[in-house]
Amino acid sequence: MLRYYFMLGLRSLRRNPALTALMVLTLAIGVAASVSTLTILHVMSGNPLPHKNGRMFVPLLDNGPLAGYTPGEELRDNQVSYRDAVNFQNSKMGERRSVMYSIAGTIEPQNKNLDPFGLQGIAAYRDFFPMFETPFLYGQPWSEADDTAGADVIVLSRKLAEKLYGNSNPVGQRMSLMGFQFQVTGVLDTWDPVPRIHNIASGGAFGSEDGYFIPFTSAIRHQVTNDGHMSCSGDREPGYQGTLDSECTWLQFWFEMASDGQRGELQNYLDSYAQEQRKLGRLKRNAPNQLFSISEWLQYLHVVGNDNKLSAWLAFGFLALCLVNTIGLLLAKFSVRASEVGIRRALGAARADIFRQFLIETTVIGLVGGVLGLLLAFGALALIGMQSKQLTVAAHMDWVMLTMTFVISVAAAILAGLLPTWRACQVTPAIQLKSQ
Amino acid sequence: MLRMQNLSKVYRTHMIETHALRGFEIHVKQGEFVTVTGPSGSGKTSFLNIAGLLEEFTDGEFILDGVNVKGMNDNARSRLRNEKLGFIFQGFNLIPDLSLFDNVDVPLRYRGFNSAERRERIEDALAKVGLASRMKHYPAELSGGQQQRVAIARALAGSPKLLLADEPTGNLDTQMARGVMELLEEINAQGTTILMVTHDPELALRSPRNVHIIDGQVSDLVHKGPSLVAGQHKAGSNAATA
Questions:
Q1: Is the pLDDT score of B19 beyond 60?
Q2: How far is CA A19 from the centre of its chain?
Q3: Nearest chain A Cα to B154, which residue?
Q4: Tell me: the pLDDT tens digits for A73-131?
Q5: Is the Cβ pair B91, A433 closer than 8 Å?
């Protein structure tokens, strides 16, 4: 019977094309508006590593001076100092750990047809790659020995490798970066997590792919400056060493524990580390030492702004308005079908049969509205993407949102169809049959 | 086939009560062709609607083919209606955007027949009313008489025991009306019980048994001999209680 009702639903779409088109369009516009804003919200708040949410953590300490500090004051920082980062790195806590910071430098291609160009990259430890599950097209990360030695080795992004070496495997090749010769150990396949959780605090949640990766120790050895944000509330000596010795925060740090449930262990370590540093005369504020899981980190850094949330609410309000309109249109459409209901009832249809038939008919409208809504949502996302670079990255639809579009559309149609369908079931067949 | 005893139907609004049927008694036997006549507002339609399980009655007893319908829920009434009854209306009541085939298919769908059986029944029913060649046509492409034949085919397709006809010739000219009446008599001759409401005294006279309703009660019973279509009724079929 479901197939029969579905066929009747399709036929019914043709019965009154203008009314049907109006209903489908109303539904599609509402769905497109809500899905496109929801897509942006979904992508912005998405966790690229949801399976590691319980075991990857960002540590934060309050390195600020005592002057002007009120106990209980909320921590406003989002990075760590060089001294803390190096201590964390040497702590052997967790399965993996890596400090990182954004760098920028000039690349001088061997290919003389290419002019030197500047590009941003990341300085990190080798653990960075397995921790963030970066896919390798060629080669592998550099070795632990390279980290220890501060070796001049480099992992390229696919885009940069193709620019410099075409489609050939460049592993083992040497290239010039910031005036130093680096040896290529690997090339990443396309890796562009949204949001860019590994570098939100310094480089932003949405941005272009990182061009290359070099060992943190190598970057420090070459005194490569930070290309991201830096927060300095205390005094610092001039020069590069002055920055390293200061309480300025400019590095990001990630721990990855071996399994979920080890947060307490890491918190204990962080607390005892802070205690120890206080004894050494640092961390004067005695503020709580914080750990953030990936989702907590996204929330802490306000990756999804209140205006995005408001847009989503407004879009759903608009969908509700579209639903009310659809209810009105469905009431009109079904009311002219009262005689058909009367006939079907006389021929043996129970109220439940009529209910199923009309509800499936509204589902068909919902499906058609969903397809149109999807097309409109793609258009809307393209338009939204034109507004800013940040939104271009966020304004793309994935399978979850594709499915969500149909679910919202069908659910909205069914919701809108409930009252008209219920009213259709209340038709008194005897009256309808006589009035024909 | 159909027995109503001391049946009443009261329509209530917050202001007034209208007794459409009161103390209504009738017994229609299997294979009978009964015409129902009466002035407007006498209760003919209420009787037909209750007989067709389209309306509930207020009080009394109604046995349809051995089944007491009192207190039945909507699903059970619909199933009984689908299995045992066929309807023919004055206004044909075909669904305009379904082909003749699909119109006749409607009651069979609710009956749960498989595709092959439905097709066979539809083709047989349309052949019986002389419209087998037009099953892909739509109601609007047919004359009134042909539309009524389709309605009859739809009513017959499910092999009902009782055919309820509400002024089936009311919208037809004399010639078409005669054709439809002959078709109904032929169906009755094959064993289907027919209960037909009509305003046409000629048609009432033509049936073997005429029940007259006034003020919601059976006021008169006209017992006649065999149908005008000779030899198609058993003498015993005229026995009735009212």
A1: yes
A2: 39
A3: A347
A4: 777 788 999 999 999 999 989 999 999 999 999 999 988 889 999 999 999 999 999 99
A5: yes
| Facing residue for B55 by CB, picked from A1, A342, A430 | A430
Query: Can you read off the two tokens belonging to residue A184?
Result: 């290529």
Does the domain formed by B2-238 have CATH 3.30.1330.60?
no
Residues 6+ apart with CB under 8 A from A96: A127, A130, A131, A255, A256
If you measure CA to CA, which chain B residue comes closest to A430? B54
Please count the other Cβ atoms lying within 10 Å of the Cβ belonging to residue B139.
19
Nearest residue in B to A4, CA atom: B109
pTM for this one?
A: 0.65
Of A4, A15, A343, the CB nearest to B109: A4
Q: What pLDDT is attached to residue A394?
A: 60
Is A345 within 8 Å of B154 when comparing Cβ atoms? Answer: no
Cβ distance B54 to A11 less than 8 Å, yes or no, reads: no
What pLDDT, on a 0 to 100 scale, did the predictor assign at position A141?
Answer: 96
CA distance B222 to chain A (A): 27
Q: What is the mean pLDDT of residues A277-289?
A: 86
Tokens 């129902």 found at? B36
For the ranges A160-169, A212-221, A355-364, A372-381, the lowest mean pLDDT is seen at: A372-381
| CB-CB under 8 Å, A339 with B54 | no
Q: Does residue B3 belong to the interface with chain A, where contact is any CB pair within 8 Å? A: no
Q: What is the pLDDT of residue B240?
A: 36
Separation in Å, CA of A194 to nearest CA in chain B: 52
Our CA-based measurement puts residue B206 at a distance from the nearest CA of chain A, in whole angstroms, of 24
Q: Give the pLDDT confidence of A147-172 residue by residue, as tens digits.
A: 999 999 999 999 999 999 999 999 99
Q: Report yes or no for ipTM above 0.90.
A: no
* Domain residue ranges of chain B, discontinuous segments joined by +: 2-238
pLDDT given at position B227: 42
Interface test with A, best of B44, B53, B109 (most A CBs within 10 A): B109
Q: Which long-range contacts (CB under 8 A, 24 or more apart) does B60-64 make?
A: B60/B4, B60/B5, B60/B6, B60/B7, B60/B8, B60/B24, B61/B3, B61/B4, B61/B5, B61/B6, B61/B7, B62/B2, B62/B3, B62/B4, B62/B5, B62/B7, B63/B2, B63/B3, B63/B4, B64/B1, B64/B2, B64/B162
Assign B229 a pLDDT band (cuts: 50, 70, 90): very low
Give, in order, the Cα–Cα distances in Å from A221 to each of A24, A124, B180: 64, 13, 105
